[in-house]
Amino acid sequence: MGAFDRWFDIGARPGTEPDPEAASTRILTAANALSAARLLALPWIYLDLVGGRYLRALIVLAVFAATDWLDGYVARRFDQVTRLGQLLDPISDRAMFLVVGIAFVVSGILPLWAVLVLFVRDGLVLIGGAVLLLRGTRPPPVTRLGKVATFGLMVALPLFLGAVVLGEVPADPQPLLSIMAWITYAINAALYWVSALGYLRTVLQPKDVG
Question: Could you state, in order of their start, the residue ranges of all structural domains in the chain?
């Protein structure tokens, strides 16, 4: 289990434990810049996808997924864990699923039901977070399971796109890569929902009195 934890907290300095409550209020950090750059890249990814420029979209999407890991490493390694970064990171992930999911549907790469699986889940979590804030409670941090599922989905989406690039058209993707993409997507979409149910259980717990 220790090795498993270290994989998530890679970049943390030896002998230190990640403490979300110790995040600083700084804004201008390299880690935050990476998170912001991911958000700024989303319009280009969308336009490339709906415009049929699948190879370029694949390259940008792969870089997007890589920086999702890199900003966390930079934040932990160089003491740049900030409250803004704790917001930007999950927001950029959810925004990516939304923008790329819509573009995949418009382009015919994925059916609508496949992306609705993610949209409905994120919508429920967003409502749950709003409920906690109205109670005066901070939403809980992203769980390990949620991080695993998010990473897996970020692998699945480029796989779908890679299958299209090799097959040349969305209607006829490369079979082996397409199968791998669907398996990866199905497993991690299920984990994504399991992590959400744990989050929603926190929301449904009655608020402690006194």
Answer: 23-204
Dihedral over Cα of 157, 101, 63, 141: its sign: negative
Tokens representing 96 are 């990516």
Confidence at residue 207, expressed as pLDDT on a 0 to 100 scale: 59
Residue 56 structure tokens: 């370029």
CATH of 23-204, one of 3.90.550.10, 3.40.50.720, 1.20.120.1760, 3.30.260.10: 1.20.120.1760
How far apart are the C-alpha atoms of 150 and 31, rounded to whole Å? 19
Give whole-number Cα distances, 49 to 42, 60, 99, 124, 207, in Å: 11, 11, 10, 27, 45
Beta bridge partners of residue 82, listed in sequence order = 24
Distance CA 141, CA 30 (A): 22
pLDDT band at residue 105, thresholds of 50, 70 and 90?
very high
Query: What value, to the nearest 5°, has the Cα angle with vertex 123 and ends 50 and 150?
Result: 70
Q: What is the mean pLDDT of residues 30-45?
A: 87
Question: What are the residue ranges of helices labelled H in 51-174?
Answer: 54-77, 83-107, 112-134, 144-167
